[in-house]
User: Fold this.
Amino acid sequence: MRRRNRETILEAALDVFSRKGFRGATLDEIATAAGLSKPNLLYYFRSKEAIHTHLLDGILKTWLDPLYAVDPGGDPREEILGYVRGKLAMSRQYPRESRLFANEILQGAPHVAPRLTGELKRLVDEKAAVIRAWGAEGRLPVLDGHHLIISIWALTQHYADFEVQMSAVLGEKDPYPRAEAYLEELFSRMLTGP
Assistant:
């Protein structure tokens, strides 16, 4: 029962935070969405910030896993294209989480700044060095690894963060199959060089 109530609260909070951001969300709204009283909600989480932080920690772990999985010993092109596919699949599977994270960043990252400058920066630096080494070895064109990773984030997460815009512009309920084909072609050309 305790685990089920925590999961219900987190699911409700994810929905509210992804639509309204941390500042716009209230504990009352989260409790109502969870079908619980506010005192009951506070029994499971001591504050709105505690719920928000718990959600962000889970999102960051989930999102970092595919970047950790980029194998320096693998085929560079396949490793990067696999990362692109993985990030797009995550945007499709976790659009609310993506919007929650985007809202946090737009607010100046008050709850995740240490993770961004710590674990995330270390991981991106490590993988950018791998990309640089692949270029130096002639296995890829010489690319700025940091900006390549950031470009992948921008081009994949945009589909989740701006879902309404994507649906309006493309006139499709599911833009992901075409997006995957396009991004695969785009990055394949970049990774092949001139």
Notes: The chain has ten helices and no strands.
